[in-house]
Amino acid sequence: MLGWRPFTAARPNRAHRSLARLQAHGALDELITQNVDGLHQRAGSRSVLDLHGRMDAVRCLACGAHEARAAFQARLERANPHWVEVGVIELRADSDAQLSTADFSDFVVPSCGACGGGPVKPDVVFFGGAIEPRVVALAAELVEACDALLVVGSTCSTYSAFRLVQRAVARAVPVGLLSLGPTRMH
């Protein structure tokens, strides 16, 4: 809840805008991202597959209904007005926040707005979680159809990214990799 507002304040950077320009000029057909922030779309990219989901939505674990995170955030804040003032010690890029308190016993998580009883979570794949099979299949189809693969800003340390590169390499598709640090690829 406390990390949401700073998370939404993030803006696309030069890499996001450059990829959007490549797509706008026809040099890039599809974009598959592990990012959950929606910054590619905000930069202007139109055909984006969010491999790990998006933080701007929540999903009910009981009925599967989706709700905009902004609407859920408003419900969170109404249910927990005193939590808005809790101090944040550390804020991570994914909106996770380490707080100045360890007692969460009075924190209220609203139930699903659709079914009224289900627990909700951000509509993202958390570390160790499984990507939806339809998303995996769509990513595989995109890689199967590509004539080149450009990987930007990923170390390919997650298997979800690594296996897409492996798939392209197996097809003898040229792969370019731009990353600031070491990667899983050889």
From TrEMBL:
Positions bound to Zn(2+): C60, C63, C112, C115
Top-level taxon: Eukaryota
Gene3D superfamilies in the cross-refs: TPP-binding domain
InterPro entries with a match to the protein in the record: DHS-like_NAD/FAD-binding_dom, NAD-dep_sirtuin_deacylases, Sirtuin, Ssirtuin_cat_dom
UniProt-listed Pfam families: SIR2 (PF02146)
Residue span, Deacetylase sirtuin-type domain: 1-186
GO molecular function, one term: histone deacetylase activity, NAD-dependent
UniProt keyword terms in alphabetical order: Metal-binding, NAD, Transferase, Zinc
Active site: H52 (proton acceptor)
UniProt name for this protein: Deacetylase sirtuin-type domain-containing protein
